[in-house]
Amino acid sequence: MSRKLILFRHGKSDWDAPFASDHDRPLSLRGERDAQNMGMLLVASGQPLPELVVCSPALRARATLDLALRAGDWSPEVVYSDELYGADAEGVLELIHRLPARPVRVMLVGHEPTWSELVLRFCGGRVRMPTAAMARLDFPASDWSGVEFGRGELVWLHQPKFFRKFRYTGRRH
Questions:
Q1: Which residue range(s) make up the domain with 54?
Q2: CB within 8 Å of 131: residues ≥ 6 apart
């Protein structure tokens, strides 16, 4: 059985909004729209959805996830992990290794430059993960401890700029 991992980068943040720390930086209007569109896109693809989401506790990551879940109308188990805020690729791999054997489909919501580096290290391909992008990686592993750098396959990469003409309206079609 293979493992399916979706890396979801938080939406574009609002650098002009007042915030006390980087951790508290909110999403911009574009970031909100992109998060909603990506949530709908994931559901509309008809692929099995992640059963578990592990999310950075940063405001922009939490807001991205919340908007995507509401727009797509899906409700996986959600866990927030301080390890994803400011994590490097090795730290994220350690977190992945500690995931329970079930579920087989997991989404991680986090930050750059780590997300692009993870795709590079898992698959060997250089990829830029713009804000609100999602990448699905598959691994030939029977549990999460078997996920290793150099052993992943990039199945797809969705960048929100290609879907901006589709706007979230609050209704599912």
A1: 3-14+22-163
A2: 9, 10, 11, 12, 13, 31, 34, 160
